[in-house]
Amino acid sequence: MTRQRPMIIGLTGGIGSGKSKVSDLFAAKGIEIIDADILAREVVEPGAPALAKIAQHFGKDMLQADGQLNRKALRERIFSHPQDKTWLNELLHPLIRQLMQERTAAARSPYCILAIPLLVENQLQSLVDRILVVDVEESVQRTRVISRDNVSADQVDAILASQASRSQRLAAADDIIDNNGTINNLIEQVDKLHAYYLSRITKLKA
């Protein structure tokens, strides 16, 4: 008998919303976390075909002395050359998507979290069963990111402008975590959602 894949919860939210903390809280309950950002790094590790294609397309200066991707040089290149950004996305997105599907299918927990920061922007709703948005006020995002990343307010505003708006994410959400409050409030919301997801799985199996 073929094992059914677990229910997939797509976790998303804007920069500084607290997605990592929410992932950690679910992981502490034994829920497997598949993080799109980690998969994006995996597909360009030394020896990966995608990294060789990047070096061939952009030149050897995209590689560091140890063979790792020079992320700073690549960011600068695609920032000033939109066509290069398109080329890179067309190379990497299918590879990352394939890994997402493989990892979620192999997950052993009752449900799994697929953390995709740009889930709404990249229209990846079809990869998940439910969308969980970590929501915060934009003013809270700005304060957190400026403090965490030591960047200017203008840089934060540019990042926010490049992402889906708060209203767009909320419109796509099946479930919402309000992360404007305390850590205890966050834990309480994760506890309730965890129980809810388990109850949905039980009903689906009945």
From TrEMBL:
<protein>
    <recommendedName>
        <fullName>Dephospho-CoA kinase</fullName>
        <ecNumber>2.7.1.24</ecNumber>
    </recommendedName>
</protein>
<keyword id="KW-0547">Nucleotide-binding</keyword>
<dbReference type="InterPro" id="IPR001977">
    <property type="entry name" value="Depp_CoAkinase"/>
</dbReference>
<comment type="pathway">
    <text>Cofactor biosynthesis; coenzyme A biosynthesis; CoA from (R)-pantothenate: step 5/5.</text>
</comment>
<keyword id="KW-0173">Coenzyme A biosynthesis</keyword>
<comment type="similarity">
    <text>Belongs to the CoaE family.</text>
</comment>
<keyword id="KW-0418">Kinase</keyword>
<keyword id="KW-0963">Cytoplasm</keyword>
<dbReference type="GO" id="GO:0016301">
    <property type="term" value="F:kinase activity"/>
</dbReference>
<dbReference type="InterPro" id="IPR027417">
    <property type="entry name" value="P-loop_NTPase"/>
</dbReference>
<comment type="function">
    <text>Catalyzes the phosphorylation of the 3'-hydroxyl group of dephosphocoenzyme A to form coenzyme A.</text>
</comment>
<dbReference type="Pfam" id="PF01121">
    <property type="entry name" value="CoaE"/>
</dbReference>
<keyword id="KW-0808">Transferase</keyword>
<keyword id="KW-0067">ATP-binding</keyword>
<feature type="binding site">
    <location>
        <begin position="16"/>
        <end position="21"/>
    </location>
    <ligand>
        <name>ATP</name>
    </ligand>
</feature>
